[in-house]
Amino acid sequence: MGFKETFFSAFCYLLLFSVSCKCLAAELDMVQTAGLEVDASWNLSRKIPDTLFGLFFEEINHAGAGGIWAELVSNRGFEAGGPHTPSNIDPWSIIGDESSIYVTTDCSSCFSQNIVALRMEILCDNCPASGVGIYNPGFWGMNIEEGKAYNLVMYIRSLESVELTASLTCSDGLQNLASVSVQGIDLSNWTKIELQLLPEGTCRTSRLELTSMRKGIIWFDQVSLMPSDTYKGHGFRKELLYMLLELRPQFLRFPGISHHDEVDTTIIEPFVKDVLDSLEFARGSAESTWGSVRAAMGHPERFPLKYVAIGNEDCEKEFYRGNYLKFYDAIHKAYPDIQMISNCDGSSRPLAHPADLYDFHVYTSAANLFIMKNKFDRTSRIGPKVFVSEYAVNEQRDAGKGSLLASLAEAAFLTGLEKNSDVVQMASYAPLFVNDNDRTWNPDAIVFNSWQQYGTPSYWMQTYFRESSGSIVNFGPNAVNFTISSRGLQAGVNTAKSTVTVLTSGNLLDENSFSEPNKVVPVKSELPDASEEMEAVLAPYSFTSFDLALDQYSKLVAEM
């Protein structure tokens, strides 16, 4: 840990602790002034866990497919309806009429685990000049941009000579942005075709067309269209990945392998084996049975999987506790270093079973979450640590689609977690993403469509916690004149490099949007009066961070 990190961890813990006590009292007394005394002496410092703030990703609101995963084709394997045929091919549609084309599905794919393929029969002898075929609009329209390249990969089989055209068009099919042909290739066996499309125009609601004018039958499977400029070539939308990286997360939580809380403990063994096999896939050596599968997929390195949660919000279900022990014992025996997370809340009473951490979820009103900043003040410091894996203000009248009010209550809650970081080890907001076309859950941290994205105030609130800083929430309607007195600093305050950052807006329920993505965002400015004794004003309903630069640190940076 470097000098800056060590110092600010100590300084900010004390600042948050004092403010969370005194500001509330000031509000209750209707006093619009407040004082804060900070002792930043080394002997009073306590390191905040490196793992305290991270991310929770789940496939909700089209967060993955149609979201962070840059795949433009929806239902690329024609198996939206499962492995049975005829299968649901939505949103694929037909170009042409019943006299010119017939489309169905069968089980003839070359992929043994995904056996459904699409069968396209061209019936017309004199097909239209534009051809007949199928098209895919992606996830509410594909964003196709001039100057970019798009990689088309698909598997094709046909017993006849094929003349196939792959095109990118606008949603009405009238504006052709790019086309490429497939012909003169022996396709009697399943063949992987790779093409690149270079559009000569931009359309935010485009579609992929596969058309032909030649009579015959063509089978398709695993049709993929990807922009060539994904994040590090890994297939993720760059602009969404960059927003995640801006939060500097220290862990990633994601839904796991098996969820069998209602299965009788007497028949749980097969599910335990599934979990152990999956853990071997992630953690096993490249020579192990399942680790070799991972290596064959191009990732010989083991994944740094360090935690396993057993169940999800299942503590009160009939078979959970019996199932928990079977999973716990099996995983602990195979991977003793993996930390196990229980679904049962241990904040007010000890757990009745072994665990390294326990999972705590809270979705509530802004007022309730603000009060819960003190939730873990009296939690026992002996035994499992706390993982607040899902938190958010979600009451509609407070949160809307992501309001300033919600973010302020969440900020206060997080300062309480920092204050109690000797027992709270990890925390993550939920949900992380929402495609604006599929708002299954509101609010969310990051909103996007096929070509735009913005952070809600709750996203921007989390940027304050990327590193320890002196952050203060004013949850009241009045401005507060604030006096800060500091002692025990290891160097003098560098006024020129000190800053203040404020998250606020003109209305408590203000939200960001595609038309106003920066309506509620942090505003950073100089702090000309920064010193060991300083005056400041906390705006009504605001989240403020005071970042004091130290002369000694500034000197070290200048010499590097």
UniProtKB/TrEMBL annotation:
The Alpha-L-arabinofuranosidase C-terminal domain, residue ranges: 389-542
Any GO MF annotation of the entry: alpha-L-arabinofuranosidase activity
Originating species: Oryza punctata (Red rice)
Enzyme Commission no: 3.2.1.55
Protein name: non-reducing end alpha-L-arabinofuranosidase
Record SMART domains: Alpha-L-AF_C
Alphabetized UniProt keyword annotations: Hydrolase, Signal
Hydrolase recorded as keyword: yes
A Pfam match: ASD1_dom
GO annotation, biological process: L-arabinose metabolic process; polysaccharide catabolic process
